[in-house]
Amino acid sequence: MKKIAFVLAALTTFVACKQENKAERLAVNYPQTEKVDSVDTYFGVDVPDPYRWLEDDMSSETEAWVTAQNQVTFGYLEKIPFREDLKNRLEKLWNYEKLSAPFKEGDYTYYYKNDGLQNQSVVYRKKDGGEEEVFLDPNTFSEDGTTSLAGLSFSKDGSLATYLISEGGSDWRKAIVLDVNSMEILEDTLVDIKFSGLAWKGNEGFYYSSYDKPKGSELSAKTDQHKVYYHKMGTPQAQDQLVYGGTLAEKHRYISASVTEDERYLILYPRTTTSGNKMLIRDLTDPNALFITVLDDTDSDSYVIDNDGSTLFIQTNRNAPNEKVVTVDASNPTPDQWKDLIPETENVLSTNTGGGYIFAEYMVDAISKVMQYDYSGNLIREVELPGIGSAGGFGGKKEEEILYFSFTNYNTPSSIYKFDPKSGEYEVYWKPEIDFNPDNYESEQVFYTSKDGTKVPMIITYKKGLERNGKNPTILYGYGGFNISLTPSFSVVNAIWMEQGGVYAVPNLRGGGEYGKKWHDAGTQMQKQNVFDDFIAAGEYLIENNYTSSDFLAIRGGSNGGLLVGATMTQRPDLMKVALPAVGVLDMLRYHTFTAGAGWSYDYGTSEDSPEMFEYLKGYSPVHNVKPGTSYPATLVTTGDHDDRVVPAHSFKFAATLQEFQTGDNPTLIRIETNAGHGAGKPVSKTIEEYADIFAFTFYNMGYDTLPNQKVLKEFKD
C-alpha cells in the first residue's frame, strides 16, 4: 500500500457545555484515515473491511497513523484544565507502601513490596531473624520500567528459582534460572515461552509451555498449537524434551503443566478453548510410566488441587455447575470412579490448600464466605471474615503452621491477615497506611431486572450522604465473560473518582462466573446479547433511581469488557454520555484470526461456524455496527501498541470507523500507549498517567470545567 498522507480533516467538533457558564468546549480535528477496497465473503454475504490495513501493526503506515492519532488525543487532553490536578492527586494517593503475603521457600521467606510509586514491585527475602534484602528488582530490568516480572517458581528445596520476564507488556516470556544463594545465573535465557507456568521436578529441571515462533508479525500472528516442554538443567533449550502437544491430529491451543507438592505426579491440562480441559497424569517416581488419561473430553473445568499418596483431590464442575471437590485413586482416575468429598452447593466454590486443610471459598451474590475442611471432608469451621467483601489466600505448603489471607471491598484497601489453621484465630499482619478514609464511603448491593426478567446483582459505591438528584458523575463498569467473577476490591483510581463525588457501580453480568457454569453459559455465543442487555439494564436502573442521568453516566470495561462497552454504545448511544472501551475485542468477525483469539470461541463462536453464527456476530460486532449519521457518546478508546493478546487493530479500526461516522458534538479519540501490551506489568507511572487522562476526559465531557469537589483538591494541595 502506498505511503499514506495524513491530512487533517475538516471534522471540527464542539462538545456542548452543561455548566452554567456555557464555556466553549475543546475542538477536535481528526486525522483522515485512508480507506481501502477490502471485502470478505461469509456464506455468500460480502462484508467490507475498509480499514483492514490497520491490522498490519508493523507497517510504517500504521505507525504514522498511531502517531497522528496520539498527537490529536494528547493535544486535546493537555488542554483540559484539571488534568494535571488529577494526575497529582493520583500520585499522592498511590504513594503508599504495598505488601504481599509472605511465602516460604527453602531457608528464606519471600514477599513482594512496593514503596509507593515504584513502577514494578520488588521481591524481597529474609532468613528467620535475618535482615531484609532485595532478591529481584524488576525496576532494574529496563530503563523505562516496561520490562516486568511475570512469574517466579522455586525448586522444592528452595535452592533454585526460575523467573519469567515480559518486555513491553508482551505475553511472550523469557525465563532466567538462578542459584538463590549465590544469585548466579545458571543457564542461558530461555525464550518463546507463552501462557505458561513453571513446574519444577526436584532440582533436575522444570516444565513450561510454548508455541512455535510465529511467522510474520510476532504481535498478531496466529498461535494455536501449544506444547509442553521439559528443560533439563545444564542443557541448551534446543534440546528440551517435547512432553505433550504439537501433533496435527489433535490441536490444543492451551496446555498447562503442574507437579504435585510431593513431586510424585505430573499433571497436564490440554484445552482447545478457554473453557473446559482434558486431564492427564504421569507418575514421576516411575521412569517408564506413561500418561494416564483422567479426562478425555473438554466438557468440564477440572483441576487437581492436591494429593495424599495416590489419592487425588480434584475440583470440578463436571455434573456440578457450581463446582465440587472429589477424590479418586491415581491408578484408576476416570470420572466413573470419582467420589464426592465436598459436595456442590447453591453457591459457587473455589478452593485452596494449606497447612493440611482445604479452604472452600464460596461466592454468595459475589461476596466471600470461607469454610475450612480437613482432607477427609469434615467441616472444621467457617472462617469469620473481617467484613463483607472479598477474601483470598489461605494457600501454603502442607507443613505450614501459619497461613495468610487478604480481605478487601470497594471502599476498603486490601489488608493481609495472619491465620492459624489449627485454632482458626487470625490477626492483622499488614494494613496499608493510605490517605483515604473508608468510613466516609459506603456500598450497597441491589438486584435489578434485565430485559428477559433475569435478576442481576450490582454493587454501588459512593461517598456517604450522596444526594440522588440525577446529577452524580457515575462510572458503570462491567466484564461479563469467560467465567470471570467481579468481586468487591479496592482501587486507588476508583477512590479518586469517589472522593470527587462520583458513583462507582459494578453489575455481575451473565457470562461471568458469579453463579457458576449456567450463569457463564447464559452469556456465551448466541446468548451473548444477554450480557449487553444486563449492562444496559444496569444503566437504566441507575438512571431510574436517580443515582445519575444519561448526561452524567460513563460506561467502562477492558478486553472482553471493551467489547461490552463497544456493543452497548453502538446499541444504545443515548444511554450514556461517555464510553471508555479499553483493549477491546471489537471486530467479532476476525478476532479468531489473531494470536490465540481462536481459543475464545467457547464464549463467542466464530464467523466461520455457520451462517447463523456469522449473522449473530455481525449483528453486535462493534466495528460493524457503527452507523452513519449517529450521535455516539464522547469516546476515549485506549489500547497498547504491543498488545499481543487483543491486538490493537481492534481498537484502531473501531476508532477510525467512529471518527468517520460520528455525528454531533461528542469527541471520538484513541489513546495508544506505546511499548505497552494488554495491561499486565504496566509501569505505575504509565498507569497513573492513563487514569488521569481517562478521568479528565470523562469529567470534562460531562460538562465540568473544574473538578466537582474542589475542597478535596484544596486539602490535598495544602
TrEMBL record:
Keywords: Hydrolase, Protease, Serine protease
Keyword Hydrolase carried by entry: yes
A family per Pfam: Peptidase_S9_N
InterPro entries: AB_hydrolase_fold, Pept_S9_AS, Pept_S9A_N, Peptidase_S9_cat, Peptidase_S9A, Prolyl_oligopep/macrocyclase
Domain Peptidase S9A N-terminal per the UniProt entry, residue ranges: 31-429
Family affiliation: Belongs to the peptidase S9A family.
Name of the protein: prolyl oligopeptidase
Annotated source species: Muriicola marianensis
